[in-house]
Amino acid sequence: MSNPVSDEARVIPLPAPREPLWRDLVGEVLRRERRAQERTLKDVADAARISLPYLSEIERGRKEASSEVLAAAAHALGLGLGDLLSLTHGELARRTAERRRPAAAPHRPYQGLCLAA
After folding, report:
1. Total Cβ atoms within 10 A of residue 59
2. What's the pLDDT at 90?
3. What is the distance between the alpha carbons of residues 84 and 67, in angstroms, rounded to a whole number?
4. Cα–chain-centroid distance for residue 30?
5. Are 87 and 26 in contact (CB under 8 A)?
6. Tens digit of pLDDT for each residue in 17-31?
7. Is the pLDDT reported for residue 106 higher than 70?
8. pTM of the entire structure?
9. How far apart are CA 67 and CA 88, in angstroms?
10. Residues 6+ apart with CB under 8 A from 25
11. Contact at 8 Å (CB) between 71 and 48?
């Protein structure tokens, strides 16, 4: 027996966009700052006294670093921990604002009163 194929298209809902993870954002900010200074992972890892593979994993958002490790990485880049967190917060605010911004407001006819003298 064969199953009849429906003429109706199946609707597969898209997953809701997920919130960006803090560790991803912190890693992106660290990488962006390191590259802006034209420094290597090894250079920053040595200055921060963090292993190169661990710093690489932090930059890729694979590891959730402690505040001590983040402070060391930030200081190696000439930033304070507050600077790193502020830059990361700015990136989070920018991304979440982009997601909330509606593509276009639906058109609604004006339902108010117009008075003329």
Report:
1. 22
2. 95
3. 11
4. 13
5. no
6. 678 999 999 999 999
7. no
8. 0.71
9. 14
10. 61, 88, 91, 92, 95
11. no
The full length of the chain comes to 117
Burial class (CB in 10 A: 0-12, 13-18, 19+), 5: exposed
Q: What is the mean pLDDT of residues 32-58?
A: 98
pLDDT band (50, 70, 90) for residue 42: very high
Q: How far is CA 111 from the centre of its chain?
A: 41
What is the pLDDT, as a whole number, of residue 18? 79
Q: What is the 3-state secondary structure (H, E, C) of the chain?
A: CCCCCCCCCCCCCCCCCCCCCHHHHHHHHHHHHHHHCCCCHHHHHHHHCCCHHHHHHHHCCCCCCCHHHHHHHHHHCCCCHHHHHHHHHHHHHHHHHHHHCCCCCCCCCCCCCCCCC
Q: Residue 71 pLDDT > 80, yes or no?
A: yes
Structure-token pair, residue 50 = 């963090």
